[in-house]
Structures are given as structure tokens and as C-alpha cells.
């Protein structure tokens, strides 16, 4: 059991988390635009997350919290 | 379920102004994690330099002083000499450290000033819009080298760690990067060691972090990491150039 | 009364700083202030202080910035070309609301100029050698004793108003020896600096010492706030010595080394029956406009005497507000005018009134 919580307001949608994710289960919410004008990252297949923290390690905006 | 990863305590809640995908934020986090783990935020004083990272004074939770361009090592010297118990670090870019502040850098290093220097090398002047930096690569296209950096007229880039490693006052000179999870873990270890050295009074410790500038390189954040790997890493090899703790063994 | 000792101006400045509680000195060698730094290098280790020879004047002033940010009482010294290099740092110190004392033992300029005494850095000192809207307090001693007294005031007022203060001396004052009484202030309590970046100890919000305000409204607000402080200083801190001015037809205005020559000329003129006096500005910023405006009510003319091509004379003219003529006499490039030369000017101006 693991999950990531993305702070959708500080996320800049840069894609480094999705690129680092070994399971390739992070996507970007096209229907949402945050205060800064970015499409924030979101865990698309929560059941597959193993909580490896790779996404959070790569996030330049410290927008990801990981629970395991 | 418990939290296994979150923003470090030594980072404030002020949203960072860095461009999407700029690796400054990762390096900020590593510095803050080192401060948290060593339990020194209360006596840490950071020096923000001129360039993109100038506003790091808003992001680090410890006391902060903003230095004139290139002068961070001199300002840090004053801060450290005034209160030696404090943990003083500078956070400097390549233009700041290796061009306008070369004299301050070399002399703080050779004095063995007991400070920690985080040197962010992204081979370009970011804040002013992408001009040639002292670390821009031969042939690299920038706003002021539109035909590529011509070494015949603009000279060669400076390899800072190699240069400073020749000085007796330097305790640690190490080059790391943050392009991957593995390298980030190594960078974290180096940064923590650079702070540890200060706590143990070893002298000047510098960690050079190869970083990206997607905006001024004209690449996506992911492409920028690839560019860093294929262009910067061959010219600026990662590694430990000096480590007095190794020499002691 | 403390016992008097014979001291060189440069050394007296240094000892006075130590007596005022300064324990941090960052310098860089330059003639004619050399003895000051040398004295500091000898004395600081004895009082548990820090003497550090920086790699440049630029580095030295930024070390001052750092130590001041940490809350320390700190000083640097230099001479004209070196002060040009420090000007960047002085602008940042002013823009960060930090106190610090800067000594300028002036020599001839521009460029490398010469190494003999001059007063040609008046504009640089009082009008801001660095960029931006700012001031620093500028003190102009004319004796070795006054150098001692003003160093202590420069530290105290710098702390009070949170701004840099300069002692504007010159090569003549720096090199001359005179008897001085040093204040016995060692161990006096220095003011708390609640704003310092000295580590928050997890007990308060983090302090940011900064001069950057990207929002123009914020920057203007900050500068206006600083100028309110400047206005208080202009109101409260002007200092000048008025010498034989009560009945003077001609009032000389001179500071520092040239005021010593002007004083001799005034005495000689008085012996000749000429009604001449001297106003000697002790603070150059704030400029003693009140003393000059007061004298302008009765005097028929002013004569500014400087070791420059005429810099302070501008401020004299502003203070006199065109009510009477303001004349100028100066020598420059390291030449000190003689009392005879000044007397000649006095006679020329007062020619018709004798």
C-alpha cells in the first residue's frame, strides 16, 4: 500500500516526476489548470504505486508527499 | 501508512519562482535536508547570491543574507568570523562563483574559511536571459555566443572543482549532479558531508552540482536532463577532487 | 581625565575603534592608511578580535557586510582608490540597513592619482559613491583627538540609525602625530541588534538581510522609509564649529586638514584687523546648513577652502541660497594650501571693505 499526494497548486507540471516513475503511472490533469497556469501531476493508477519516492526525489517544487 | 517522503522543515512555504523543471529546487531540498538531519537550522545562516537563486533567501527557513554579485564568500567570511558557532553556507551560481566572484572564491578557499559552498553549475546565466557563462561549453549556443562559444575568442570553460582542489585550504571539492534518483542520493551525501566538515572545523567545502536550465537551453525539462548527461557530464566529470577526510585515513 | 599619549592619526583611529567595542576589522593595504591596518593586525589578537587582510577592497567591504549582518561592530579602512572599490559594498550596506564604519584617509585622484593628502572625495562620500538613493553619515575630524572622538560617535550613530558611517580623513591627518586622550570605554555594553542574521535558534521567524525589492512599490516604500530617517538625521545630527564668526564679514568654510590652514589664515587676518571667521563642518553629511545659513544673515561673503577643485563649495552655496557671494580657493593633487595663500584670497575678497 502506497500513495503520493501532489500539491496541485505548487506543481508546475514539468514532467520530471512522470519521467522518473519506474511504473510510468503519473500523468497530468489536462482538465485542471492551477493558479500558476499549469496542469498538475496526478497518480493515474494508484493501485500500482509502490511508494519508491523516485517522483518526489525528482520534483523541483517539493510538491509530492509519499506515504507507504 | 506513514509519510516516507515530504518537504524538509528547513524549507519555507513560499512558492518557488524557478521555471518548471529547473533543478534548483532539487538542490534546495538537498541543502534543507542536510540542515534538518544535522539539526542546525537554528544556527544556520545562508548567503544568497545574485542570479536565479537570489530569492533563495525566501525559501530557506534559516536566517539569510543576500550578497552582492560574486561576493557571497566574502559575506560568508564576515558572518562566520563574527559568530564561529553558526553554520554558514553560500548558494551560488556559475556566473556568480566562477566569473565575477572568482577572487572571493579562490581566497575564501585558500584561507580554508570554515564555510560550506553549494555551487550550482548550469553552464549559463539564467536570470539575465541566457548569456554565456564561465562554464558554458565550447560550441554552446547562448544569447551572447549566437554562433556557439568560440574558444579562440571566448576562451575555455573553468573546471572549478579541479582548480580549487589544488588549494591547501580546501577540505572537500566534489562534483555531483541531480539528473537521476541515484545521482541525487550521491549529491545529498556530498552536501551533508560539506556541512559536516564545517561542524568539525575542517575548512572550505564546495559541492558543485551540475544543474539544468531548460528555459535558456531551449529544451523541455526532460530533454534538459539528457543534454546535461550527454554534454556537461563528459566535460565536467562527476567525482571527488579533494577530500581531507580520506587523506586522514 | 585619562592620560594623554602621543599617537599617529591612523593608529589613533584604530585604537579608538577598539575602545568603541569594534572587534572585527577587514582591510586591504593602501597608502596612506597603512598604519591603521598594521595597528589592527597587532592589537586585534590581543583583545580577542579579528583582523583579516582581504584579497581586495571589494572583498573587505563585503566581509564587513557579513559581520555587520551577524550583528557585530565592524570597520574597514582604505584610501581614495580603495574607497571607489568599496562603493559597491557601501551601497549594499546602506540598502540592507546595516551599520558599519568606513575610514577614508584621502589621497589625490582621479585614478591612481597620488599618495599625498587631498579632499577630492567629498562628492563620493556625501553624494553617494555607489548607486542608488542613499546616504551615509560622514564625519570630518581635524585633529587626532577628534579622530578618536568621532570614531566612537560613528559607531554609535551608525547603530542608532542602522546605516554606514564614514570618517573622511586625509593623508595629512592620518600621518600626523598629536597628543590624544583615549576614552576608557572598553567593556561598555553595545546595543542589542534584534534584526541581525545571527541564527534564529528555532525561537523566531527567519531574518532576511536584503536589498532586493522586485516590486517597485515595495522598493519605493523602503527608500521613503529610509529617507524619513535621513530627514531626522539632517535635523538632529548636524555638527559644525564656529570660530570667530559672530562679527565676521567674511566666513571661511573648511573641514579636516584644510580647516587647520584656514584657521591660521583667520588668525592672521584678525591680527590685520580684518573681520574674518571660520565655520568648520564636523559632519559633511548631514551638512551643517543651519550654521552656515545663520552666518549668512550677517556675513557679506563666504570663502570655501578645500584641497580639491571645489566640491564642498556646492553645499555651501546651497546653504547660503545666493544671499551673499560664495568664493572658492583650493589646491589639489596632493598639495596643501598655505595660510599665506588663503590670506591672500581673504585680502582680495575684502579688498574694498578694508
What is the secondary structure topology, with strand pairs?
The complex is a heterotrimer of chains A (68), B (249) and C (354).
Chain A: E1 3-6, H1 16-20, E2 26-28, E3 41-43, H2 54-58, E4 64-67
Antiparallel strand pairs in A: 1-4, 2-3
Chain B: E1 3-5, H1 24-38, E2 44-48, H2 56-59, E3 63-66, H3 72-82, E4 87-93, H4 94-100, H5 102-110, E5 116-121, H6 151-154, H7 160-164, E6 170-177, H8 181-199, E7 204-210, H9 214-217, H10 221-235, E8 239-243, H11 244-248
Parallel strand pairs in B: 2-3, 2-4, 4-5, 5-7, 6-7
Antiparallel strand pairs in B: 6-8
Helix pairs in contact in B: 1-8, 4-5
Chain C: E1 4-8, H1 9-19, E2 24-27, H2 34-43, E3 50-53, H3 57-69, E4 74-78, H4 80-95, E5 100-106, H5 122-126, E6 137-139, H6 144-161, E7 164-170, H7 171-175, E8 177-181, E9 208-209, H8 216-236, E10 240-243, E11 250-253, H9 256-271, E12 276-281, E13 283-285, H10 289-296, E14 301-306, H11 312-320, E15 326-330, H12 339-350
Parallel strand pairs in C: 2-3, 2-4, 4-5, 5-7, 6-7, 11-12, 11-14, 14-15
Antiparallel strand pairs in C: 1-8, 6-13, 10-12
- Strand/helix succession of chain A: EHEEHE
CATH topology of the largest domain in chain C: Rossmann fold
Helix and strand content put the structural class of chain A at alpha+beta
CATH class bucket of chain A: Alpha Beta
Describe the structure.
The complex is a heterotrimer of chains A (68), B (249) and C (354). Chain A has helices spanning 16-20, 54-58, and strands at residues 3-6, 26-28, 41-43, 64-67. Chain A has one domain: Alpha-Beta Plaits (2-Layer Sandwich). The N and C termini of chain A lie close together (6 Å). Chain A is α+β, with helices and mostly antiparallel strands and 68 residues long. Chain B is an alpha/beta fold and 249 residues long. Chain B has a single domain, classed as Rossmann fold (3-Layer(aba) Sandwich), CATH 3.40.50. In chain B, strands 3-2-4-5-7-6-8 form a seven-stranded mixed beta sheet, sandwiched between helices. Chain B has eleven helices and eight strands. Chain B is globular and about 50 Å long. In chain B, helix 1 (24-38) packs across helix 8. Chain C is of the alpha/beta class and 354 residues long. Chain C folds into two domains: 4-188 and 209-236, Rossmann fold, CATH 3.40.50.970; 241-353, Rossmann fold (3-Layer(aba) Sandwich). Chain C contains twelve helices and 15 strands. The mean pLDDT of chain C is 96. Chain B binds chain C through residues 12, 41-45, 47-48, 54-55, 57-58, 60-68, 71, 74-83, 86, 103-104, 106-107, and chain C through 24, 26, 50, 52, 54-56, 58-60, 62-72, 74, 88-89, 92, 96, 197-203, 206-212.
Amino acid at each position: 500500500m502506497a500513495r503520493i499526494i501532489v500539491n496541485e497548486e505548487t506543481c508546475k507540471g514539468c514532467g520530471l516526476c512522470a519521467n522518473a516513475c519506474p511504473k510510468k503511472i503519473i500523468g497530468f490533469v489536462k482538465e485542471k489548470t492551477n493558479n500558476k497556469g499549469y496542469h498538475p501531476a496526478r497518480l493515474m493508477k494508484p493501485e500500482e504505486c509502490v511508494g519508491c519516492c523516485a517522483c518526489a526525489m525528482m520534483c523541483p517544487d517539493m510538491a509530492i508527499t509519499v506515504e507507504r | 501508512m506513514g509519510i516516507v517522503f515530504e518537504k524538509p522543515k528547513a524549507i519555507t512555504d513560499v512558492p518557488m519562482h524557478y521555471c518548471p523543471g529547473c533543478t534548483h529546487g532539487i538542490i534546495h531540498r538537498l541543502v534543507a535536508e542536510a540542515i534538518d538531519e544535522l539539526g542546525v537550522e537554528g544556527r544556520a545562516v545562508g548567503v544568497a547570491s545574485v542570479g536565479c537563486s537570489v530569492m533563495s533567501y525566501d525559501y530557506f527557513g534559516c536566517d539569510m543574507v543576500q550578497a552582492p554579485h560574486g561576493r557571497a564568500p566574502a559575506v560568508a567570511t564576515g558572518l562566520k568570523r563574527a559568530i564561529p558557532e553558526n553554520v554558514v553556507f553560500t548558494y551560488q551560481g556559475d556566473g556568480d562563483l566562477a566569473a565575477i566572484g572568482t577572487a572571493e572564491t579562490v581566497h575564501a578557499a585558500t584561507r580554508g574559511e570554515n564555510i560550506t559552498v553549494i555551487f550550482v553549475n548550469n553552464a549559463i546565466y539564467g536570470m539575465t536571459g541566457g548569456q554565456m557563462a564561465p562554464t558554458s561549453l565550447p560550441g554552446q549556443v547562448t544569447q551572447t555566443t549566437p554562433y556557439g562559444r568560440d574558444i579562440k575568442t571566448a576562451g575555455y570553460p573553468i573546471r572549478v572543482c579541479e582548480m580549487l582542489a589544488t588549494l591547501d585550504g580546501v577540505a572537500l571539492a566534489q562534483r555531483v549532479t541531480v539528473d537521476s534518483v541515484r545521482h541525487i542520493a550521491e549529491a545529498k551525501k556530498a552536501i551533508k558531508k560539506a556541512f559536516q566538515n564545517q561542524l568539525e572545523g575542517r575548512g572550505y567545502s564546495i559541492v558543485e552540482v551540475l544543474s539544468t536550465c531548460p528555459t535558456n537551453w531551449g529544451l523541455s525539462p526532460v530533454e534538459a536532463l539528457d543534454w546535461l548527461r550527454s554534454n556537461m557530464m563528459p566535460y565536467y566529470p562527476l567525482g571527488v577532487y579533494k577530500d581531507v577526510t580520506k587523506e586522514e585515513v | 581625565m585619562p592620560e594623554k599619549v602621543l599617537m599617529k592619526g591612523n593608529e589613533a583611529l584604530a585604537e579608538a575603534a577598539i575602545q568603541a567595542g569594534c572587534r572585527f576589522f577587514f582591510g586591504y593595504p593602501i597608502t596612506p592608511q597603512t598604519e591603521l591596518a598594521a595597528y589592527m593586525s597587532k592589537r586585534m589578537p590581543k583583545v580577542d578580535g579579528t583582523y583579516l587582510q582581504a584579497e581586495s577592497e571589494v572583498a573587505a567591504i563585503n566581509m564587513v557586510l557579513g559581520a555587520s549582518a551577524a550583528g557585530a561592530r565592524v570597520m574597514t579602512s582604505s584610501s581614495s582608490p580603495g574607497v571607489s572599490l568599496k562603493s559597491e559594498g557601501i551601497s549594499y550596506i546602506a540598502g540592507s540597513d546595516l551599520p558599519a564604519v568606513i575610514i577614508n584617509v584621502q589621497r589625490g585622484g582621479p585614478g591612481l592619482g597620488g599618495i599625498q593628502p587631498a579632499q577630492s572625495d567629498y562628492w563620493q562620500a556625501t553624494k553617494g559613491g555607489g548607486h542608488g538613493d542613499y546616504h551615509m553619515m560622514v564625519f570630518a575630524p581635524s585633529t587626532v583627538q577628534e579622530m578618536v572622538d568621532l570614531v566612537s560617535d560613528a559607531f554609535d550613530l551608525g547603530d542608532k540609525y542602522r546605516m554606514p558611517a564614514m570618517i573622511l580623513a586625509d593623508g595629512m591627518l592620518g600621518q600626523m602625530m598629536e597628543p590624544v586622550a583615549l576614552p576608557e570605554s572598553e567593556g561598555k555594553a553595545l546595543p542589542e541588534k534584534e534584526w541581525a542574521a545571527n541564527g534564529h535558534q528555532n525561537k523566531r521567524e527567519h531574518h532576511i538581510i536584503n536589498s532586493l525589492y522586485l516590486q517597485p512599490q515595495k522598493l519605493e516604500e523602503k527608500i521613503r522609509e529610509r529617507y524619513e530617517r535621513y530627514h531626522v538625521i539632517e535635523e538632529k545630527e548636524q555638527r559644525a564649529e564656529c570660530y570667530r564668526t559672530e562679527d565676521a564679514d567674511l566666513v571661511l568654510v573648511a573641514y579636516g586638514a584644510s580647516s587647520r590652514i584656514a584657521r591660521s589664515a583667520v588668525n592672521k587676518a584678525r591680527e590685520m584687523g580684518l573681520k574674518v571667521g571660520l565655520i568648520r563642518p564636523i559632519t559633511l553629511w548631514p551638512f551643517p546648513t543651519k550654521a552656515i545659513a545663520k552666518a549668512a544673515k550677517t556675513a557679506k561673503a563666504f570663502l570655501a577652502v578645500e584641497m580639491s577643485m571645489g566640491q564642498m563649495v556646492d553645499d555651501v552655496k546651497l546653504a547660503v541660497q545666493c544671499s551673499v557671494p560664495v568664493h572658492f580657493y583650493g589646491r589639489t593633487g596632493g598639495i596643501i594650501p598655505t595660510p599665506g595663500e588663503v590670506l591672500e584670497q581673504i585680502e582680495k575678497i575684502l579688498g574694498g571693505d578694508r
